[in-house]
Amino acid sequence: MDSDDNRLKDDGSQPFDPERLAHELHDGVIQEVSAIVLRLETCQRRLRMDPEAADGDLEIIKEQARAALRGLRTLSARLRKEGQHETRS
Amino acid sequence: MKPAADLPGERCLRVLIVDDHAVVRQALRVMLEMEADMLVVAEAPDGEAAVALARTYSPDVVLMDIRMEGMDGVSATRELREQCPEVGVLILTAFGEDSNLTQAIQAGAHGFMLKESSQKEVIEAIRRVADGESLITPSLLRRLLDELAQRNDGMEVRHADLTERELEVLKSLAQGLSNNEIAKDLVISKKTVKTHLGHIFSKLDVESRAQAMLYAIREKIVEV
Predict the structure, then answer these.
(1) ipTM for the whole predicted complex goes beyond 0.90
(2) How far apart (Å, rounded) are the C-alpha atoms in residues A34 and B139?
(3) Of the four listed, A10, A36, A89, B145, which is most buried by Cβ atoms within 10 Å?
């Protein structure tokens, strides 16, 4: 099974668990940012040889960066929610 | 699992990418496809698929992640070395990730690079593993030493039988030098280096350069 399915989930149904958070980060945004770094370096190499293809690469990278950002925002919102919940209880 | 659609020139260096994250596999594929002489023959999301695909596509090098769901990179390396001994295994791992390098070397991996390494370094490492060489990126050597310091799994001392020359070759190998570099340094032919390596492997009872390197580091034959 592809671990890409195991992305950050915002169901708020489970209590905060640092271990699970680390696991989700590893399988989600960390992999996305790793891929972005790899693709940026490839794009930089391609820039001189084939600027048009490099431009296409940049579109993909931009979309991947947006997806990573969405993942981080989701996580941030979830952690904030958890924090409020713990303060109340 | 995505088998290669075409199989062009015979002289292409055939690579199998193993990583449980599709975004990373895709990025690695794009990176390798920039090289005119490299062909990604397949991608595998786990160790089990990697072994099956290696048997089907006979890659020159398997680019292997360690931490994966199901069969991990260490077990997959062990299986690959047993079922496809001619295939080179280059471990590509993330810095700070909880992965056991010592076990991966003992499983028979030929090289270790960090996902954070530059593309130039990774591509060079793939070429060297395809040429039958081994390498460990310097920043991983530190981790390897830490792992060795924590372990005491009783590797026997076996280098007493090495000749002075063989010891020199082993030291050079453990410092990460290629066969060419060792030949130049010691002013001997590449063929002689290979002969020495054969004797060293046999005397140390190891199967790969990486295992010989691990032995040399553990026995403090070299300082890293």
Answers:
(1) no
(2) 18
(3) A36
